[in-house]
What does this fold into?
Amino acid sequence: MNNEILLKNLRNVPDFPIPGIQFKDVSTLFKNPECLRIIVDELYELYKDKGITKVVGIESRGFVAGAALALRLGAGFVMCRKVGKLPADVIQESYAKEYGIDTIEMHTDSLSPDDVVLIHDDLLATGGSMLAAYNLVQKFKPKKTYVNFLIELTIEGLNGRALFDDDIDITTLMKI
Ligand code: AMP
It folds into this structure.
């Protein structure tokens, strides 16, 4: 799926946070009422018949549309956060980044084996952070796990999808 209105309103910030990165700034989509509606409507159409019981949003840009979608689906919303942010008991997953190791966490009581889960984030680049979130969610042994990004980056030879097994159901609203 590729959406002209969303693509037209998405801000590109060159050389942020470091030289050479073309940062896709979804804040210009979230602040625009029409774009926000399009995002949530399109996500709802994709997932309304999947029996989703929990939407997991990845900190922090995955929280915005993730929570709005959970409300539309009649599902709950769960935060997947960076290390040290969640106050109760957590389980963790660590993954290698370009420089060093990153760790993400979820509360131990955030999902159960009865859940059908959608993990949502704003953007797929290398896929490392989503794969870690996917592996973390699998520790709860949910019935099924879907994956969604607003944006899939395929420029500069990125192929984040290749990190995921073919049987994982991944959707994106925009490909760049
Ligand atoms: P990755 O783990 O490499 O797929 O990176 C995805 C995460 O990093 C997402 O949470 C994005 O918000 C962020 N990210 C990576 N590259 C970009 C980019 N070019 N523009 C905006 N966000 C990015």
Observations:
- The first strand starts at residue 11 and ends at 14.
- The two ends are 11 Å apart (CA to CA).
